[in-house]
Design goal:
The protein has 4 helices and 5 strands; from the N terminus they run βααααββββ. By secondary structure, the protein is of the alpha+beta class. It has a single domain, classed as 4'-phosphopantetheinyl transferase domain (Ribosomal Protein L22, Chain A). A 3-stranded antiparallel beta sheet has the order 1-5-4. Strands 2-3 form a two-stranded antiparallel ribbon. The termini are close together. InterPro entries: 4-PPantetheinyl_Trfase_dom, 4-PPantetheinyl_Trfase_dom_sf, ACPS, P-Pant_transferase_sf, Ppantetheine-prot_Trfase_dom. It catalyses: apo-[ACP] + CoA = holo-[ACP] + adenosine 3',5'-bisphosphate + H(+). Its main location: cytoplasm.
C-alpha cells in the first residue's frame, strides 16, 4: 500500500551557490557515506550528486507528509547507488520501503519518492500493520 508520494525540483546552480556560501553545507546535507561516495566523481558529477541527494531528501520528507523539520531531517536519510548505479535509500525513518527516482538536466534535478507499507518480497501483498 502506498503511504506517501513526494516530488521535488532543484536548480543545480542553487546548490552550487549554497556550497560556495556555506562551508558546512555538505556536512549538514549529506551523511558520511554519501560524502565518501563523492571521492571519485568529476566536479560536474559531484554537483549533480549533491543536488540529487538534496532534492531526493526533500521528496522523501514530502512523502512523509511533514517536509523537512521535526519528523525527518536531511541527515536521517542515506542515499547511495547500488551496483547498477541506481540510487537507493539505504537508511531512513519510515517503516517500509522507499522507492526513489532521480533525473537531471544540466540545470535541474527532479526526484520522486514513493513510500510503501507492506511486504511484497514474495510477490504477494501482506499488510505489515
Amino acid at each position: 500500500m502506498i503511504a506517501g508520494i513526494g516530488i521535488d525540483i532543484t536548480e543545480i546552480e542553487r546548490i552550487k551557490l549554497a556550497i560556495e556560501k556555506n562551508p558546512n553545507f555538505l556536512t549538514r546535507t549529506l551523511t558520511t557515506d554519501e560524502i565518501a561516495a563523492l571521492a571519485n566523481l568529476s566536479e560536474k558529477r559531484k554537483l549533480e550528486f549533491i543536488a540529487g541527494r538534496f532534492s531526493a531528501k526533500e521528496s522523501y520528507s514530502k512523502a512523509m507528509g511533514s517536509g523537512l523539520g521535526a519528523t525527518v531531517s536531511l541527515l536521517d536519510l542515506t542515499i547511495l547507488n547500488n551496483e547498477l548505479g541506481k540510487p537507493v535509500v539505504t537508511k531512513h525513518p519510515f517503516n517500509g520501503q522507499a522507492h526513489l527516482s532521480i533525473s537531471h538536466t544540466d540545470k535541474l534535478v527532479m526526484t520522486e519518492v514513493i513510500l510503501e507499507k507492506g511486504d511484497i518480497t514474495d510477490g504477494s501483498f501482506n499488510d505489515a500493520e
